[in-house]
Amino acid sequence: MSATHTVSILAVPRVQLLDVIGPADVFAEAAQQLGNPRAYRLQLIGTQAGDLKGSNGMRMVVDSTIHNHRGRIDTLLVAGSPLPEELAGRAETSAWLQRQARSVQRLGSVCTGAFLLAEAGLLDGKRVATHWNSTERLAACFPALLVEPDAIYVKDGSIYTSAGVTAGMDLALHLVEEDHGRDIALRVARKMVMFLKRPGGQSQFSAHLAAQTADKSVVREIQDYVLAHLDADLSVPALCERVAMSERNFARVFRAATGVTPAGFVEAARIDEARRQVEASEVPLKKLADSLGYANVDSFRRAFTRRLGVSPNDYRKRFTDQAG
What we know:
Elements: E1 5-11, H1 17-34, E2 40-46, E3 51-53, E4 59-61, E5 64-65, E6 75-78, H2 91-101, E7 106-109, H3 113-119, E8 127-128, H4 135-141, E9 146-147, E10 153-156, E11 159-162, H5 167-180, H6 182-191, H7 207-211, H8 217-228, H9 236-243, H10 247-258, H11 262-280, H12 285-291, H13 297-308, H14 312-323
Parallel strand pairs: 1-2, 1-6, 2-5, 6-7, 7-11, 8-9
Antiparallel strand pairs: 3-4, 10-11
């Protein structure tokens, strides 16, 4: 890596400003932690001249536009908008991105910025993340993409895509770790009160948040029961018995209301609680597995790793390193 790494963020009108400011502040803080203010050079590139108005009505001044930008770009991130339908049909932007893709070291997107990369044909055949509310639209508009609907961020070769809004900061931390190591990334996370650098495969949703989205009373009843009785028998037959429904009908109603299977919700709820306990205490994994209704510690480890992309012990070590 050169002495100064240029990070450029492309933003369109009505951009989600945190998609720009969040990653930019992560890189700026990394430079401070390195004791080298020139470690990262940040640029904001617009699609048109003049002030850039964000989705919240606030304005920013761009450093250059796709029409007059000159100079090297090492990492190029494309910021998103809450209105992905407005990102279509931008031929000049697509052509500029295609040119930049031939020379940048890393190309990525935050939130619905993935739509701009996809329209430029730069994500075909790639594993991709975006905001949870836009995954189905992205997959439908660009069937050549391998959309991962629940990932925080995804790396596929030199292409990096992230989920919505604050997930762009998780992606930026990952890029800082690639450039300068885990210790610097953790120091940045601690300074910015990000609590913990999340693995890219971690779910965008917590089980408690998901439980607030169901509008069918029987589903909410089961979700509330699961969250309050994580050590109980939460098998599908046991849950069906509580609501006097057949397994087939229960599974159909639950998935229609939540988008996940009953077993998927139970696992998410248990691992969500496991994550909190691993962060906050030194509780032995065997005891934790027992308290969450797992038959043995090995099945607990497998579920934890499947959900978070990292083992319980490695997850705890990351938290311990950051808190130290």
